[in-house]
Amino acid sequence: MRKTFLCLVMLCAACCMVHAQDIKDGSHRTIGRVESDGTVKNSSYSTIGHIKSDGTVQDGNYHTVGYIKNDGTIQDGNYHSIGYVKSDGTVQNGSYSTIGHIKKDGTIQDSNYHTIGYAKDVKATHAALLFFFKLLK
What's the rounded mean pLDDT across residues 22-27? Predict the structure, then answer.
């Protein structure tokens, strides 16, 4: 499950990037890459997703799986709110229970503050997608 979460971090990074960036797991192993055009690739260089500049999140086949709103709301593909990102980086599910934290330095933590990954220079609302969308099977 953590591997799935961390691969989703790659989607989050795409909106903020000028050049490609590696995404690392909690042990600092590179698990994927985000290309400058928003294409998300896993460690085998297979495309697993995309994130558009308007906040639309897509899987590897360009099917829309969700949306990031400017106010921190995370929506599924049917525009239902499924989570929130507070201004301090706290990630909450649709019931407002805390499910994770996004630190300013790019550290991504679960609800118990265990580090599960790193995505440097990624906005908290984008990095939080790793808690909501599962693109890997």
Answer: 76
pTM of the model: 0.72
- Cα gap 49→7, rounded to integer Å: 9
HSE value, Cβ hemisphere, 13 Å, CA-based, for 21: 23
From CA 1, how far away is CA 124, in angstroms rounded? 20
Q: Report, in angstroms and rounded to the nearest whole number, the Rg of the chain calculated over CA atoms.
A: 13
DSSP 8: H
- Per-residue pLDDT for 96 more than 50? yes
- Please name the amino acid found at residue 131: F
13 contacts 57 by C-beta, under 8 angstroms: no
Q: In the block, which residue shows the tokens 């906040």?
A: 55
CB atoms within 10 A of CB 79: 10
Strand partners, 100: 91, 110
Mean pLDDT within 107-132: 76
